[in-house]
Design a protein that fits this description.
seven-stranded mixed β-sheet; single chain; about 35% helix; about 425 residues; alpha/beta; four-stranded mixed β-sheet
Length: about 425
C-alpha cells in the first residue's frame, strides 16, 4: 500500500514535467537546430514559444507539488477518533491515569460557580497532586478540552444535565471549563432555582442548565407523604423538551435508607409500597424514562447522553490490595494518589448493570458516558472533609463525615466533560 502510494505520487509529479518538456522540444524551430543563423522574425517566434514553454513547465510543477502537499496534509491530519467510541477502535473508557503538569484546566478560585460542597481548595485541602492527572485511553488519544471551541460549536444551542448531585457536579465543571477560556468581559447570566438552574454565555447564545431530579421519575406529595411514582415522568419531562443536548444520570438515591431516603411510598401500577428491592425499583423507573425517550426524543435534533454510575470510596478494602497503598482510615480521607494500572480490584455499583440492560432494550438509546471504571481509580479525588458543608466537629471525625461520593472541582468531573466533548464533536 505504501509503495503504491509512493509510485502514484512520483507519477503525478513527473508526468506533467515530461509532457511539458516534450512540448518545449516540439515548439523549438527546426532551423534553430540546423542553422547557426536565423532571422529576426525567427528570433521573436522562438522567444514567444520558449516563454510559453517555461510557463507551462512552471504551471505543471506548481500544480503537481500542491497536489502532493495536499495529499500529505490529509494523511497527517486525520482525527484520532470518531464521534462514537463504541463504533471505532478507540476504547475511550479503558486506560490509565497519567501525571501531567499542564493540568488542571482552570483554578477553582477563578470559576464563577462551584458549590462549597465541591470546592476542596477553598476549604483547606493541603495537597494539589490530585489536580494533575490526565486520563489516557489504552489505544488512542483524546483532544484536550477547548472551552472557546465548545462555545463556537454550540452557538445558539442549549445543554441540560438532568439528575442528582453527581449531575450537578458535572454541570458546574463544564461551566468552569468554558469560563476559563472565554475572553475577558464576556457577558454571562446565572439563574438559580429548584429544580432548574441555568448559566448562560450570552455572547454565544449558549445556555448550560441543571435540572434536579434524583430519580428521573416524578415525586408527588399526598397528605404530606412523598410518593415516588415509578410509572410516571410527566411533570419532570416537560422541562426537557426542545433541548439540543441532554445528559441524564441517576442511581445513588435509589439505595438511600433512613434519613437520606427521598420518598415515603413507592407507587407502582397504582399500588403503594413502603419498600421493595431497590434495584427492581430502579429498573422500573428507568424503563419509564426509556419509554418517554423513545417516544419523544428525535436524535437527529437532540444529542442524548447518559452518565454511568459514579462510584464511591467508603470501603478501603476495595483499593488496599495489589499495588495500592493501604489507608490508615476507614474512608477516602487521606488518599492523595489514584489507583495504579488498568484494573480495579474492588466491586462496581450494581446500578450500572441495571442501567445497561435498560438502555440495551431501547429503540432510541443514548450514548453511555461510561465513567464508572476511570472514576473508581480516583480514590484521591473526593472532597473528603474539605467541604464547606461540614462543621469543624465533623471535620475532626473523618471516619464518619468524609464525603467520598462527590468530587472536588477542579478535578475528576473535568475528565467526564472532556470525554463528553470528545463524544459530542469528534
Amino acid at each position: 500500500m505504501v509503495h503504491a502510494l509512493i509510485v502514484s505520487n512520483i507519477l503525478s509529479f513527473t508526468f506533467p514535467l515530461f509532457f511539458s518538456s516534450l512540448c518545449c522540444f516540439q515548439l523549438l524551430p527546426m532551423n534553430l537546430i540546423s542553422s547557426p543563423k536565423f532571422s529576426s522574425s525567427s528570433t521573436k517566434s522562438f522567444s514567444f514559444r520558449f516563454l510559453l514553454c517555461l510557463f507551462l513547465l512552471n504551471f505543471f510543477c506548481v500544480l503537481s507539488f500542491a497536489s502532493l502537499r495536499s495529499h500529505q496534509y490529509q494523511q497527517n491530519h486525520k482525527k484520532p477518533i470518531m464521534i462514537l467510541a463504541n463504533l471505532t477502535s478507540c476504547s475511550l473508557f479503558m486506560g490509565s491515569w497519567v501525571y501531567d503538569e499542564t493540568y488542571p484546566l482552570y483554578q477553582s478560585s477563578s470559576c464563577p460557580i462551584i458549590d462549597s460542597q465541591f470546592n476542596c481548595q477553598m476549604y483547606g485541602r493541603p495537597d494539589t497532586d490530585y489536580l494533575k492527572y490526565r486520563w489516557k485511553p489504552t489505544n488512542c488519544e483524546i483532544p484536550r478540552f477547548n472551552g472557546l471551541d465548545f462555545l463556537l460549536r454550540m452557538r445558539g444551542k442549549t445543554i441540560m444535565y438532568v439528575g442528582d448531585s453527581l449531575g450537578r457536579n458535572q454541570w458546574q465543571s463544564l461551566i468552569c471549563m468554558i469560563s476559563a477560556a472565554v475572553p475577558r468581559g464576556a457577558q454571562t447570566q446565572y439563574i438559580t432555582g429548584d429544580p432548574l438552574s441555568t448559566y448562560k454565555f450570552l455572547d454565544y447564545g449558549v445556555s448550560v442548565s441543571f435540572y434536579r431530579t434524583p430519580y428521573l421519575v416524578d415525586i408527588d406529595s399526598v397528605l404530606g407523604k412523598r410518593i415516588l411514582k415509578l410509572d410516571d415522568i410527566t411533570k419532570n419531562s416537560n422541562a426537557w423538551r426542545g433541548v439540543d443536548v441532554l445528559s441524564f444520570n441517576t442511581g445513588h438515591w435509589w439505595t438511600h435508607k433512613g434519613a437520606l431516603q427521598g420518598w415515603d411510598y413507592m407507587d407502582l401500577g397504582g399500588k403503594l409500597y413502603q419498600d421493595m428491592d431497590r434495584l427492581v425499583a430502579l429498573e422500573r423507573g428507568l424503563r419509564t424514562w426509556a419509554r418517554w425517550i423513545d417516544a419523544n426524543i428525535d436524535k437527529s435534533r437532540t444529542k442524548l447522553f447518559f452518565q454511568g454510575i459514579s462510584p464511591t470510596h467508603y470501603n478501603p478494602s476495595d483499593w488496599t490490595t495489589g499495588t495500592s497503598t493501604a489507608s490508615s482510615t476507614r474512608t477516602c480521607y487521606g488518599e492523595t494518589v489514584p489507583m495504579i494500572g488498568t484494573a480495579y480490584p474492588g466491586t462496581f455499583p450494581d446500578q450500572m448493570g441495571v442501567l445497561k440492560e435498560v438502555i440495551r432494550d431501547m429503540n432510541n438509546p443514548p450514548f453511555i458516558l461510561d465513567i464508572t471504571f476511570l472514576s473508581a481509580m480516583r480514590k484521591d479525588a473526593h472532597p473528603s472533609i474539605y467541604s464547606g458543608a461540614l462543621t469543624s466537629e465533623q471535620k475532626a471525625n473523618p471516619d464518619h463525615s468524609a464525603d467520598c461520593s462527590h468530587w472536588c472541582l477542579a478535578g475528576l468531573p473535568d475528565t467526564w466533560n472532556q470525554l463528553f466533548y470528545t463524544a459530542l464533536f469528534f
